Amino acid sequence: MADGLAALAGFARALRAAGVAADHYRTRSFLTALGHLDAADGRDVYWAGRLTLCAGPDDLPRYDRCFAAYFSAGTPAAPRRVRATTVSVTRPVATPYGTGESPGTDEPGAPPATASETEVLRHRDVARMSEAERREVHRLLALLRGARQPRRSRRYRPSSHRGATDARRTVREVLRHGGEPAGLRRRVRGERPRRVVMVVDVSGSMAAYADTLLRFAHALVRAEPRATEVFSAGTRLTRVTAALRHRDPGLAMDACSAAIPDWSGGTRLGEEVRALLRLPDPRGAIVVIASDGWERGPAHLLGAQMARLSRLARRVVWVNPHKGDPAYVPLTAGIRAALPHVDDFVAGHSLAAYEELAALLAGERPVRTGERPVRRGEADA
Predict the structure, then answer these.
(1) pLDDT in tens, 230-283
(2) Rounded Cα distance, 216 and 346, in Å
(3) For residue 170, what are the domain limits?
(4) 277 and 207 in one domain?
(5) Rg for the chain (alpha carbons), in Å?
């Protein structure tokens, strides 16, 4: 049995060497699937590996070649070779702007993505995607609607039938009619989009997610340029809003790369939240912090600054990519110090998670029972 497991694990290593994204998550799924099948049957081994170890259509030819080469030597896990049969079902999906190009590729005339592939891609972890899948997710993020929850403005606007009496407009209307009585003029408070301040952790532990999170921030900036501020957080706090104002996502990411001096470094979240509090931006805004909570500085400093932030901001949202894992438990000192002062603790690992975050910022997603941690200063919200 041990020899069979070693042979199967060796097959996964051979696939990784050939360029297939057969990481330890997919390898574990492969071995779990074979636990319910016959590991001595080559057909079961072939299909279990094909369905769990391959990340996309580009991996299938490499998988077939590796399977034929690896198991042709009589490995105990699969004594005979099996000829693979490929069944392809193409169901076109409507693409934006009526184009006939394949999503995720730049080549016109390529086969369109199926609806099932798009749905699976929405829930897949960004860190475990192939390069083609990541490009498709980035394309979908660029189309994301970055609507914002409205707030009441201090300015008034004229109203035809409701609201308080507008004395000035009423008097002017009477004078315009030579002192004759005229109808009352009314006014109501206008609405403006609520401001959002987003801080994206670009440290080494967030390297797999930082680029996608910045593309999500780019969608927010493009939707509401005057109501969005974005900062990167590493060893220092850097404002990248101006770089993200480019309409083209590629140009925006290039400008961000040039503007951020501390990519893949350490994280000093406590000092960076303190620097954020010196600015007028977080006051009355929704503050979104995208980080895994790995803190190089003292955790008590982060807790104290998050307490101040919770009293100044309208709402504090913490986005942690690892929360998408059902087995995740917030054990790091930084995240434990911050959570008591956070209103929403959400996942940030997939396209579906970013869509839910966008719905939360737009006021379309209600806070679920038990989702909102109890924090001090509740009456100030």
Answers:
(1) 999 988 999 999 999 998 999 999 999 999 988 888 888 999 999 999 987 788
(2) 15
(3) 152-193
(4) yes
(5) 27
